[in-house]
Write a structure and sequence with these properties.
By secondary structure, this protein is an alpha/beta fold. About 35% of the residues lie in helices and about 15% in strands. The chain contains 11 helices and 10 strands. It has a 10-stranded mixed β-sheet with strand order 7-6-5-4-3-2-1-8-9-10. Strand 1, helix 1 and strand 2 form a beta-alpha-beta unit. Helix 1 packs parallel to helix 2 and helix 6 runs parallel beside helix 7. The longest helix is centred in the N-terminal third of the chain and has 18 residues. About 0% of the residues have low confidence.
Amino acid sequence: MIKNYFAMQWHITDRCDQRCKHCYIFAGEDKSYSPEFDLSTLKEIFFDFLTTCKKMNKRPSISVTGGDPLLHKDIWGLLALLKEYNVPFAILGNPFHLNDNVAKQLKELGCTTYQMSLDGLKETHDFIRKPGSFDATLNKIHVLNEVGIKSAIATTVSKTNIDEIPQLVKIAVDYKAKSFGFSRYCPNEKDRDNIVSPSEYKAFLERMWEQFVILQDKGTAFILKDHLWKLFLYEKGLFKIEDESELIMDGCHCGISHITVLANGTVYACRRCESPIGKVPEESLYDIFFGDKMESYRNFEDFEACSKCELLRFCRGCPSVAKCATGNFYAQDPQCWKIF
């Protein structure tokens, strides 16, 4: 459906206890932290975002992340500002600085969701992220549940862990995570061996769907985040196209209802691929979002495969995976199994 909100994924810091193998921040040659803004500049960006939402007649939606956002020196001042202006928020972070008192503070300030990552079973996850991270993540789920913050588990799927994810779902359910979802690995130039084939990915979705059906009444919501779910469900007869309009109704949010701000103020069309389109606070988010650089990510007729597909309005796969794998944002999604 058409979104009635405008979302900002806000990376307020690069500081982090981990060096994940698939991390966007440390994927390139520069392994140093970006400079981060103080509270006064964060306030300036926040008010600019509210103005942008008002001009667009959209509700503001903010995901505060990093790095680990809890490591920013002004995190509590920023979250108090969000509370003052009645803007609920999600945290995308790590388990290491989360405890009972922090969880209570987050809840009081309006945190609705705290997302942590599990990228495979214990050995695989701790290899990808940090030794001890698997157990730490599972053990913090109850801390969030106790205060009424939605505990969300997210997974990045690659060849390294694809066979482990169906079992991982069961573990997340057993620990009473409130939601579970996954997205796909966006390869960097030196790691294209981790790209899953279309047939492998379709088979993976089938296994995941079977797990979801088995576990659907256990209290964990399964988030069908990957847009190729739409193709999967369409082929199973579980999604139907109800009208023949040309309106974009769902699928990739890039250029439609989402924007990303990095710790140094660089604005990306999508965080999952290198896509700089401007910089705050030097430029307004409204001008950036409706500017020529952002417009280049909204040329739906340029999709090499999706433009020929009846699901163009509802899917479009993941253009960032396509860009990372091929260099072309509009190339066919490398895991899409539909033949054109």
